[in-house]
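To: structure desk
From: M.T.
Subject: fold request, one chain
Message: Could you run this one when you get a chance? Sequence is below, nothing fancy, just the single chain.
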Amino acid sequence: MILLVSTFAVVLGAFVAASPAQAAKIWGPQKLDSMTPGQRVSFLRWYRAFGILLCLGGVLFAVDNLAFSC
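Reply: Done. Structure tokens follow.
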């Protein structure tokens, strides 16, 4: 079960990191549309950073579970 959650976190994080604009359109289109271009660029940068952290967190969670499951 833990590996399933880790895999989901890695896949979701990779999707958000690779395509933050598409991910933001899926999960919050009204917020993205109401922003100015400068705000949108900053928002998408932070969204990409969130995706990277989510992906790394999923990897580290899986490695921790596999390495220290004894």
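Reply (cont.): The chain is about 85% helix and 0% strand. Let me know if you need anything else for the meeting.
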